[in-house]
Amino acid sequence: MDLELMINSFPKLLGATVITLKLLSVSLIIGLFVGLFFAILRLNKNIFINKFAYGYSYVFRGTPLLVQIFIIYFGLGQIEYLRSTILWVILKEPYWCAIIAFALNTGAYTSEILRSAFQTIKPGIIEAGKSLGIPNKVVFYKIQIPIAIRQSLPAYGNEIILMMKGTSLASTVTLMDLTGVAKYIISTTFKPIEVFIVAGGIYLFMTFIIYNLIKFLEKKYSFN
Amino acid sequence: MELLAFGDTGWGDELFYATLMTIAVSITAMLIGFLFALIFTPLKLSKNKFLNFIANSYTTIIRGVPELLVIYLFFFGGTGAVMFVASIFGYNEYIEINAFITGAVAIGIISGAYSTEVFRGAIQSIDKGQFEAANVLGLNKFGKFFRIILPQTLRLAIPNLSNVWQITLKDTSLISVTGLVEIMRQSYIAAGSTRDPLFFYSFAAVLYLLLTFISMKLINRLEVKYSKGY
Fold first, then answer.
1. Is residue B13 a part of any domain in this protein?
2. Which residues contact A154 (CB under 8 A, 6 or more apart)?
3. Does domain A3-220 have CATH number 3.40.50.1360?
4. Out of A22, A57, A82, A182, which could bridge A199 as a Cys pair, Cβ 3.0 to 4.6 Å?
5. pLDDT band at residue B181, thresholds of 50, 70 and 90?
6. Mean pLDDT for each consecutive 10-residue tract of chain A (224 residues)?
7. pTM value?
8. Least CB–CB distance from B66: residue in A62, A78, A168
9. CA distances from A84 to A72, A87, A88, A90, A170 (A)
10. Interchain contact B173–A (C-beta under 8 A)
């Protein structure tokens, strides 16, 4: 056991954790809006809109995240037309490609979580809102959405942890996140166990924080 | 379409074998995972605090650390560990471990952590009366487990195991970083030599979708079979 290596690599890995957290938070925020958008589409009665939203979540949940990143990072650059548009400013950066892939991926899972939350809201609650003379839109934004968010907290907590692990794939498109730096140190020192303990420890610590944060929110917004 | 031709002109046959490789790695990993679940589920349910701690550490660490990091540990650490064991027996030459075995074991350990949780949940949700009834009937430990508990556990566990299978199947794409030629690696090679990454990665996505779709259909059948009588 090389303790010195563990101590020396700790600040480097901690610095890389900042990138991991950035990737995670930005893609979660975008993913939440994407997920909410598609969850609302899923509730639509129009069969085309409904099927489209279902297809989106099916494709993104049925393929590995790695494929999605590679299609966006390596694949989209191949389209000549895209290179001439303003979008290319974003798509040539591995950082944004990774975020787009993560956001679309977590958006697909989030839309499923929110959809089932919307569907488990008791109709009586919506009816109560309506009978109080509250407009439909306000019922949706002020009653249905907050209840759905509370309902989906436990499942969404799991999704955050899964996404945090997913950000490790950013290292495959040249980004030096926590896993990227860990791999670099492993391949230069050939001490995989030591580096794994430190990097894995940081990941576990983040998991622990997220887990407890969600537990706290669940308690704070519990119905009882 | 000519890119997918079989034979020397296209990548069809290569991708076909790569798909078989993905299936083989996934099944091997899933079975290794069951083996781990078989060891760790009893530890999780045991009343001994120390055994509990070991099993909980296993599932918590594996489920809290990125799959890619675990794969790097095995990829870089596996060779070292095997060479260390070999050196004890006096063999000091360089040993290279097969990428298939490294990958299947790494993914298997990950899949095992999820399977353990599934089996634990399933066994815990079996009615206490079933255990008592088995005792009353005078069945021995094995009879109790294999004839009463296991069949009921399977019925409860299959839907969740199907999720574990999907996760395992998708995780095998990560083994491509170790050089094992499965769908992802083959697409990477093909994309590199034809300079058509969009097509090959999209095709890889289609192959994965096909695999998840077919396995869902098969598992649904299994589910029906095991819920007979309910």
1. no
2. A214, A218
3. no
4. A182
5. very high
6. 88 95 97 94 91 95 95 88 81 92 96 92 89 90 86 92 95 93 92 92 95 92 74
7. 0.89
8. A168
9. 16, 8, 7, 12, 25
10. yes
Q: Compute the C-alpha angle B137/B142/B143, nearest 5°.
A: 35
Q: How many other β-carbons are positioned within 10 Å of the β-carbon of residue A134? A: 15
Q: Closest chain A residue to B213 measured between Cα atoms? A: A62
CB contact under 8 A, A79 and B198: yes
Number of domains in chain B: 1
Q: Among residues of chain B, what percentage have pLDDT more than 90?
A: 57
The model's pLDDT over B12-63, given as tens digits with 9 standing for 90+, comes to 888 999 999 999 999 999 999 999 999 999 999 999 999 999 999 999 999 9
Closest CA of chain A from B196, distance in Å: 7
Indicate whether B198 belongs to any domain.
no
Beta-carbon count within 10 A of A23 CB = 24
Domain assignment present for residue B64? The answer is yes
CATH value at residue B49: 1.10.3720.10
Mutation to test the B interface, candidates A63, A176, A198, A203, most B Cβ within 10 Å = A63
Q: Which of B69, B73, B180 should one mutate to test binding to chain A, selecting the residue with the greatest count of A CBs within 10 A?
A: B69
* Nearest residue in B to A197, CA atom: B73
The range of the structural domain enclosing residue B161 comes to 22-182
